[in-house]
UniProtKB/TrEMBL annotation:
Keywords: NADP, Oxidoreductase. SUPFAM superfamilies: NAD(P)-binding Rossmann-fold domains. PANTHER family: BENZIL REDUCTASE, CHAIN DEHYDROGENASE, PUTATIVE (AFU_ORTHOLOGUE AFUA_4G08710)-RELATED. It comes from Exophiala bonariae. This is NAD(P)-binding protein.
Length: 276
């Protein structure tokens, strides 16, 4: 038995036009999983569509704003028509703005929570409803003894574990803490349908989001590099093993209601950088 075989499964991934979401789509496609991507960009990176022929899987891109419930619900119906089912949901869209707590604007508060919290909530809720219907059509009302129906993963952040002097992101951090707060109660509610719910907290990782921050604050990445035990920040591919494990019910079937932190040791020591 290949514990990481995802053939005939479908993953709905938000934020996979680029960045970590795209890396997650690559990983799941390489395991044989069909991929439906929700992202606000009009077009994804060309690498996304290449996954279809590279791995002989179906890949479809849906350009939507995940903060609008009607769009999310109608897109999920379309995905069910296009793919037939939903087995995995990774929530990897996200925004961050550097603003001090004392001057954080309403605009930042509303946008950050709309995308990082409400958007994740709406997409996961719509995916879970599809997964629950799939479970009921097979098992009726009998509660599941094993977690085989589906896996939902919220991308949280190292920011909820430790504050970095390099950034002022209380609004972003609170949004990620809110999403971590969803994990245990939703894992509890969905367990009877065989659905697992976890979050993954990446440390500092070089993506378009990080490149954008670096343009605004040129010393940011240098500071982050000093904060990990290996003197560098992560590459998106270094999160691939963890996401594949979280999404593969044969591999991580007993893991639910948890947060998995992948931070290159950044939260494991007192940084010499801040002691200087
Ligand atoms: N890069 C890091 O160091 C890091 C660290 C910890 C956590 N994270 C989290 O990982 C996730 C991915 O981050 P990334 O670095 O790949 O960022 P990214 O900016 O490269 O990608 C985020 C994607 O989300 C999409 N998006 C934004 N608003 C949207 C909306 N309203 N509807 C649909 N899609 C929308 C963007 O278009 C983009 O494609 C985010 O949740 C981020 O907070 C990133």
């Amino acid at each position: 038995m290949d514990m990481f075989d995802l053939k005939h499964q479908t993953a709905v991934i938000s934020g996979a036009a680029r960045g970590l979401g795209l890396a997650f789509a690559e990983t799941l496609a390489s395991a044989g999983c069909n991929i439906a991507v929700l992202d606000i960009l009009p077009q994804p990176s060309s690498a996304l569509h290449e996954l279809g022929s590279q791995h002989n899987v179906k890949v479809k891109y849906y350009s939507i704003d995940i903060t609008v419930r009607d769009h999310v619900v109608s897109t999920l119906s379309k995905i069910v028509q296009d793919f037939g089912r939903v087995d995995i949901n990774i929530n990897a869209a996200g925004v961050v703005s550097d603003e001090s707590f004392l001057t954080t604007s309403d605009k930042n508060l509303q946008r950050t929570f709309a995308i990082n919290v409400n958007g994740f909530f709406l997409v996961a809720q719509a995916c879970a409803n599809v997964m629950v219907e799939q479970y009921k059509s097979q098992h009726g009302d009998v509660p599941a003894k094993d977690a085989t129906t589906g896996s939902i993963v919220f991308i949280a952040s190292i920011a909820t574990y430790i504050a970095s002097t390099a950034q002022q992101i209380s609004c972003y951090t609170a949004s990620k803490a809110a999403i971590k707060g969803l994990v245990k109660p939703v894992a509890m509610e969905l367990s009877r349908y065989g659905i697992r719910v976890n979050s993954l907290s990446p440390g500092y990782t070089m993506t378009d989001m990080m490149r954008g921050l670096q343009t605004e604050q040129p010393d940011l990445v240098k500071q982050f590099e000093k904060e990990t035990l290996f003197g560098r920040i992560a590459l998106p591919q270094e999160l691939k093993g963890a996401i594949l494990w979280l999404c593969s019910s044969k591999a991580s079937g007993w893991y639910t209601g948890q947060d998995l932190l992948l931070d290159g040791g950044a939260t494991s020591w007192k940084h010499p950088a801040v002691l200087n």
